[in-house]
Specification:
With 335 residues, this protein is α/β, with parallel strands linked by helices. It folds into three domains: 172 residues, P-loop containing nucleotide triphosphate hydrolases (Rossmann fold); 72 residues, Helicase, Ruva Protein, domain 3; 63 residues. 42% of the residues lie in helices and 10% in strands. A five-stranded parallel sheet has the order 4-5-8-3-9. A two-stranded antiparallel sheet has the order 1-2. Strands 6-7 form a two-stranded antiparallel sheet. The chain is globular and about 65 Å long. It starts with a strand and ends in a 27-residue tail after the last helix.
């Protein structure tokens, strides 16, 4: 099996290989993992790959969407309840922490937890115990906790919306999942993967449609691509997928600018530097995240940025206030 087609993670780009390397490094430990990335980028697939690569693979993998369950119900879902704990609790119930005993509990959209539930979760992480709603005795569990978020938890801490101590417990081993626009080279294989998943034989993607897929910015990431391909397969019948079979957003909105004639004649070195600058823009000037997406070290990224200053027409950052780009600071890295 292709190393980059594991548990549904499709791609052969440096950013995807970097994610899988991180999964391999942490899978054999008991560390809590925080998976960060935009909506639709594949955070749950990364959590599942982590579970199946660990010694807990034969045990339960339990998923909880913290954003879709009301606070009062979520507390009961996570920790269970005793008989009579509240109106309608006619019997005791095990929670999802107990259901995930010896396995992995994946808390998606962790930023949506209320302050009260954040305190309860912190206690489980620190002691491995909790009490069911309405209970008086501690329940011990052996659970690998993996959390995910598409929000900036550091900013939430500053605003008082997320506990700093819980953040540091969750962030023991962070994994950043790149947005699709940061690994566009995987789009053709992803598109073919989603076609195969529809179980519709004979469908291919025409060159014009593929060009549209490659040019679009994909604000909804891999999930949006999957839905676009599913729609296109339905509309194209048994013929090739053409641009008219794609969602209107791909034809009229958010299309990345075409490469100019001048740019097409640049050397490979210059094209590489321009690509680095674009990736930095995508990550709002954050060098560590950009380096991870590019599959290079932060020190190599810094060296490339210094080299870019020597090339005619390239600046330390791409874009400016008009397009929302954040200039990249050129302070030297610590040794």
């Amino acid at each position: 099996m292709n190393r980059s087609n594991r548990h549904g993670i499709v791609g052969d780009s440096n950013p995807i290989h970097q994610v899988l390397r991180m999964v391999d490094q942490v899978a054999g430990t008991h560390a809590t993992v925080l998976i960060r990335g935009e909506t639709g980028s594949g955070k749950e697939l990364v959590a599942l790959a982590l579970h199946h690569s660990s010694a807990r693979a034969a045990q339960p993998f339990v998923v909880v969407d913290c954003a879709s369950i009301h606070e009062n119900l979520l507390q009961s879902e996570l920790f269970g309840h005793e008989r009579g704990a509240y109106t309608g609790a006619v019997g005791s119930k095990h929670g999802l922490f107990e259901a995930a005993h010896r396995g992995t509990l994946f808390l998606d959209e962790i930023a949506e937890l209320t302050p009260a539930l954040q305190v309860k979760l912190l206690r489980v992480l620190e002691t491995g115990t909790f009490r069911r709603v309405g209970g008086t005795t501690d329940v011990h569990v052996d659970v690998r906790l993996v959390a995910a978020t598409n929000r900036a938890l550091e900013a939430m801490i500053e605003d008082g919306g997320f506990r700093e101590d819980l953040f540091y417990r969750l962030n023991a081993f962070p994994i950043d999942v790149p947005p699709l626009r940061a690994h566009r080279e995987d789009i053709p294989e992803l598109a073919r993967h989603f076609i195969r998943r529809t179980d519709t034989p004979g469908v291919e993607i025409g060159d014009a449609a593929m060009a549209r897929l490659m040019a679009y910015r994909w604000p909804g990431n891999v999930r949006e691509l999957a839905h676009a391909i599913e729609r296109a397969v339905i509309l194209c019948g048994s013929g090739p997928i053409e641009p008219e079979h794609l969602p209107p957003s791909l034809l009229h909105e958010d299309i990345a600018p075409a490469r100019t004639k001048e740019e097409s004649l640049l050397s490979l070195h210059e094209l590489e530097l321009r690509h680095i600058l674009r990736v930095l823009d995508e990550h709002r000037g954050h060098r560590e995240h950009a380096a991870s997406a590019l599959g290079i070290s932060e020190r190599t990224l810094y060296r490339r940025l210094k080299e870019s200053q020597a090339l005619h027409g390239l600046e330390p950052h791409h874009g400016g206030p008009a397009d929302g780009a954040h200039p990249v600071a050129m302070e030297p890295l610590e040794t």
